[in-house]
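User: My collaborator sent over this chain with a note saying "see what the structure looks like." That's all I know about it. Can you take a look?
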Amino acid sequence: MMKRRGFLALASAALADAQTTTPVPRNGRLKQSCFLRTFRPKTPLDDMCREAARIGISGFDAVPAAQWPTLKRHGLIPTLAVGGGVTIENGIIQQQGLNELVKSLQDLIDVCSENGCPNVLIVGGQRKGISYTEGADRAVAFLNQVKSRAEEKGVTLCLEVMNSKYEDPAIGRKDQIGDHLDWVADVCTRVNSPRVKILFDIYHVQIMDGNIAANIRRTFPLIGHLHAAGVPGRHEIDETQEVNYSFIFRTIADLGYTGYVAHEYDPAPGRDPIRTLEKVFAIADV
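Assistant: Without extra context I'll predict from the sequence alone. Here is the result:
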């Protein structure tokens, strides 16, 4: 006869397994993705993908292309690619190595098209003394060189809005030229391509410009991708943060947004990353 202690241990294990494998009910008006950083460090990618798929996540932003087959094994996609020579420090406004950067980004566009990745991250880069006006002109000129490849391949180049208020790379982007929504919107408007859009990072825009719902409505036709994290601290988007994300996500869904909302946050200390992601998903599942 099984002892009571052994029975309780088996029951507890079965309950934990059920909690891990049971799909989370969802509404699905918004397609959600996440980042590796939303999980506990050193978690195997297979485990991340298994949990993400169970919760209802569509894919991951910023996963290296070499790991895309792992995503696909779990029915997920790479929702946003990074690379192509574009870095936070040396973005598209720098002139040195410009031809090489164009070629590298075109190659990344091809890889994304071949592997079902719909978006590529684009950043203006650090100003390094360049004026906003000159930087915008340079960004437009660069994007005009690569937009035809993006249009041909059906891949969207997403120019991100970042905050320059904080220099700590965990919560800010030092000296970024694309640090206000209007600058990024102006560049995208001037390039005038269906494959060059705004990466509207709600966390960064809240810090620099605020007025999130109105700014989303105002620039909605130009928005190609969304990032979300709590302010302050860049933690999960729950009641501990200053932004009412339930309202923001309803606004986005009501506008008919068809792109992805990617959760780019670090779980607050002491929080369980899986339970936290379930809660974040539910908040965005409007």
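A starting point for your reply to your collaborator: The two ends are 49 Å apart (CA to CA).
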